[in-house]
């Protein structure tokens, strides 16, 4: 995709196919010879890991759908039957439920990587925006999926999230009713969420295709954040990065498997072991861990519409980062000031997650957590809307290396290679 | 093909615009059934009314029934709770409207307009913030500062008349349409 194709059909059959459907050419150019910066580190393996996660969720999900019943009266028991009666049903379900958390863990690492190395900056803005879109679709899919077991958290999580729409003045209640297909979350809601939960991952797969396509136009960013200047700066994707991705993927799979086999309920909520009851809300409603920072923002605002806007705005803001960052230098390696604000942002995100996981009246060290969440919410917004534009203008970046090859191989080796 | 230009446009332009317009109308018309199918079905719209026997409810007790898929609070208030509710200045409330389906929309949230018979407070048990079921407060296990309800999801607090007093919820708990069939039976809906 980037530059002229180097594909040369080896046999008559390959030539015949190439003239009709150049799929082998596409594969050759994108995952074989594709010139990739030679200095990509461990954090660049998460793109491949995420593709793996999507595949795992689709395969286990298709299997689970063979045994699951999307009916408010039967859903909970059908999940129990998957866990107890279906051959390897427990394994499929635990891989699927743990896989959601693994997927989000990997996507957060992937996003923070992009943020740290400035991977969203020109000419990669659309890669970043497609990534934000994938993240949104992932949250939607995870939300739909969490409703399906029809436990207490499923039901009340669905109630709270769909009620967010009632904050919209005028038509909000109608939108909520339209989403429910009833006047409250019920059987109609469960059925449509199942349908959408099956659909959206395939839309994600499509957007991932666009994400990778857009990536293959300028090629990968790299930890130095400088452009590829000569073939010396790159290595072919195969075998260098196929091998590196495979190695770190295998470590990731071990990490994944530890949870699947030794802590299958680690990411679960005990309340979801109780069947949905529309008359009793669990004392503490907690969303899945990957949504907690946004949940903390929502709860920290004592006004319904503003709370919802602050939460939605936090995600919309992400799509605008390419234009909020004014720095000429991409990588935080050469941005001494930005690096500190970046790590503060990472810590604030974790604190927000912690606040979201605690009860609404909780306090730590005598400080009400609602105030901690408020301060962190202010920092979250300030980071993107003030720090990113201002630091980019006032900061003096460190000197950038002349090239990737020079940085990796040293001056003499780079010169010798030329 | 010879180009014929007229200020009023050619026959070809007309056909182009007309077919495009018909196509656009057709797409919208075809989309509507796909959107509307998600709205509540005829079965969901056939809303039943419920008759409830309230004779077993003790003073100071709340029992939760189910109505239209929602929790329905029936609370038999103590004289102290009624007095506390009546003592509140309506104009100081975050939501000064009664939100009572039995009264005009403009009715104010006085205690008399929230409960037809002061002893019996009948409410839809859905927090007006994000739809959780608030927890009732009793002298033995208080919930919140106002003796009514506390919603544990996001901390909204309601008083002994079900009016929002503190927290993110924008409105008072809704009063459903109901009537007393006798002293011990009510019909909701």
**Largest β sheet strand count, sense and barrel closure of chain A:** 2 strands, antiparallel
Q: Per DSSP, what share of the residues of chain B sits in E-state strands of 2 or more residues?
A: 15-25%
Helicity of chain A, in percent? 55-70%
Distance between the termini of chain A: 25 Å
Nearest-integer average pLDDT of chain B: 88
DSSP strand count of chain A = 4
Radius of gyration of chain B (CA) equals 26 Å
| Straight-line N-to-C gap of chain B | 71 Å
What class, by secondary structure content of chain A?
mainly alpha
Low-confidence stretches of chain B: none
Structural class of chain B: alpha+beta
Radius of gyration of chain A using CA atoms only: 24 Å
The percentage of residues in β strands of chain A lies in under 5%
What is the molecular shape of chain A?
Answer: globular
Provide a quick synopsis of the model.
Chain A is built from 16 helices and four strands. Chain A has helices at 12-20, 23-32, 46-65, 75-84, 89-116, 125-147, 152-163, 172-180, 187-215, 237-262, 292-300, 304-324, 336-357, 369-394, 404-409, 411-417, and strands at 35-37, 234-236, 363-364, 367-368.
Can you describe this structure?
- The complex is a heterodimer of chains A (418) and B (189).
- Helices cover 64% and strands 2% of the residues of chain A.
- With 418 residues, chain A is mainly α.
- In chain A, helix 4 crosses helix 5 and helix 6 (125-147) packs antiparallel against helix 9 (187-215).
- Chain A contains 16 helices and four strands.
- In chain A, strands 1-2 form a two-stranded antiparallel sheet.
- Chain B is an alpha+beta fold and 189 residues long.
- Chain B has helices at 11-36, 42-45, 79-86, 111-114; strands at residues 50-53, 62-67, 70-76, 120-124, 135-136, 147-150, 157-159, 164-166, 178-180, 185-188.
- In chain B, the strands form three sheets. Chain B has a four-stranded antiparallel β-sheet with strand order 5-6-7-8, with no helix packed on it.
- Chain A binds chain B through residues 156, 159-160, 162-164, 166, 177-184, 186, 188, 192, 278-285, 298-299, 301-305, 307, 359-361, 370, and chain B through 35, 38-41, 44, 47, 64, 66, 68-71, 125-126, 129-135, 151-155, 167-170.
